[in-house]
Write a structure and sequence with these properties.
The protein is α+β, with helices and mostly antiparallel strands and 437 residues long. It has 3 domains: 208 residues, Multidrug efflux transporter AcrB transmembrane domain (Multidrug efflux transporter AcrB transmembrane fold, Up-down Bundle), CATH 1.20.1640.10; 81 residues, Alpha-Beta Plaits; 123 residues, 2-Layer Sandwich (Gyrase A, domain 2), CATH 3.30.1360. 54% of the residues lie in helices and 19% in strands. It is built from 14 helices and 13 strands. The strands form 4 sheets. The chain has a 4-stranded antiparallel beta sheet with strand order 4-5-3-13. A hairpin with a 2-residue loop joins strand 10 and strand 11. Helix 1 packs across helix 10, helix 3 packs antiparallel against helix 8 and helix 11 runs parallel beside helix 14.
Length: 437
């Protein structure tokens, strides 16, 4: 590619990265479309992890006493998948759901960024959500009709459970007693529809109870008016919209294969996250300044060119974090991720140092500056490639075997290494060609 084309491409990418990186402020210029403020800058926010933006962390312990020892690992993985599905259905972005084994204990760690209420999180993920339909057996005694708990005992399972459920969704309509409000409509699988039709057929003019985790959802239970064919039903009750939504999420996600117990729940406030961000920004600025001053003091004019490439490198890396290059998901930045980014700043000038030292050797051997430039990049490339590939291999191992914090560090380090290769080989060489000529 022609040097002039490369130069304009670098300038375009730098301006684009600068536009992506600028955060949104109320004082920033904006457009007004139909009397609405439309932001020009800050349209792509940086995704922050739990330790930076605050949220809720839950540690759950599975109760494996009734599970065979050879099935416990699979039960743990199934429970993790159910909880992960619930969290995703709830719409919490960048949530983390991980399973771990500590001795004989099997635990699940859940991180919910942005969700400040720990009790809401516990209600969302901690319920088993086992739905089943029960029919009344025999005629209740006079004592049973006066006691709700005794009357509940007269209802026996029909064999129709949440396993026969196809989907659940929130609807609005008139419920029991003529009350209007949110409901949960459910649709059964073909096999479940057959069961439901048979159950309603034999229970016409009788109550049919719907129980969630052994507790009746609607009491008194609805009375079957006729045989229901087609596999569609509605769960009614005195729900709020949020309760109906959570119930639909739990039913769609399925029942947990094992009971779980919340052994720790912790809320992280945004104040702690803001303090961490400020300290990380200060550390990053100090790191960039020290590296830039060293390069300028040791290499003079060449160092200033490397510093310009380092500034472009920083802009490009932050833009990749925010956008994922519009191909991959954006990077969720954590404290460990910031550490990986700051570390990559120092590594970003490694390639420049190798190139500059090689250029100095070529000039000492009598080469012209233009020829020394080309030879320096060509002959230093093998060392640059080897050192960066070894760093990428390390990042891959950390990502494959580490926890969520270690993975965040590995991702930011890998992105930094890849972008540093681009800026060292393309940006620095383009600027040097321009100024030397």
């Amino acid at each position: 590619m022609r040097p002039r084309v490369v130069l304009w491409t670098v300038l375009f990418l730098t301006i684009l990265a600068l536009w992506i990186d600028i955060p949104s402020f109320q004082q920033m210029p904006a457009l007004k479309i139909l009397d609405k403020r439309v932001e020009i800058f800050g349209v792509l926010p940086l995704k922050l992890g739990l330790d930076l933006q605050g949220g809720t962390q839950l540690v759950l312990e599975t109760q494996m006493e009734k599970i065979a020892s050879d099935n416990r690992d699979s039960a743990l993985e199934s429970a993790k998948q159910v909880l992960e599905k619930r969290v995703n259905l709830y719409g919490i972005s960048e949530a983390v759901v991980q399973s771990s084994k500590v001795g004989s204990q099997r635990r699940i760690l859940i991180e919910l960024p942005g969700l400040k209420n720990a009790s809401d999180a516990a209600n969302l993920v901690g319920k088993t959500a086992q739905l089943d339909f029960r029919e009344m057996v025999g005629t209740p005694s006079a004592e049973a009709t006066e006691s709700a708990s005794a009357l509940i005992e007269t209802f026996k399972p029909t064999g129709l459970t949440g396993a026969d459920l196809k989907k659940a969704q929130v609807t609005f309509g008139s419920g029991q007693g003529g009350r209007s409000g949110p409901q949960v409509s459910i649709e059964f699988t073909p096999k479940g529809a057959e069961k439901f039709a048979e159950i309603t057929k034999r229970n016409v003019d009788k109550p049919l109870g719907m129980f969630l985790d052994g507790i009746p959802i609607s009491w008194p239970p609805p009375v079957v008016q006729q045989e229901i064919v087609g596999g569609n039903a509605v769960i009614t009750g005195q729900f709020t919209t949020e309760e109906a939504k959570n119930l639909a999420i739990q039913l769609n996600a399925g029942a947990l294969p094992v009971p779980i117990k919340i052994i720790e729940q912790r809320s992280i406030g945004p104040t702690l996250g803001a303090e961490s961000i400020n300290k990380s920004l200060i550390a990053g600025i100090i790191g960039i300044l020290i590296v830039a001053l060293f390069m300028w003091a040791y290499y003079g004019f060449l160092g200033l060119i490397a510093d310009g490439a380092l500034a472009i490198y920083t802009l490009l890396v932050l833009a990749v974090f925010k956008t994922g290059l519009f191909i991959l998901p954006p990077v969720t930045l954590t404290l460990a991720g910031i550490a990986g980014f700051i570390l990559s700043i120092g590594m970003a000038v490694d390639a420049n140092i190798l190139i500059f030292e090689r250029m100095k050797e070529e000039i000492r051997w009598g080469k012209t500056k233009t020829l020394a430039l080309e030879l320096g990049f060509k002959r230093a490339w093998s060392s640059i490639w080897a050192s960066n590939v070894s760093s990428l291999m390390t990042a891959a191992i950390l990502f494959g075997m580490g926890t969520s914090l270690i993975k965040g560090f590995a991702i930011t380090l890998a992105i930094g290494v890849l972008v540093s290769m681009l800026t060292a080989v393309v940006v620095t060489r383009t600027f040097l060609r321009l100024f030397i000529r």
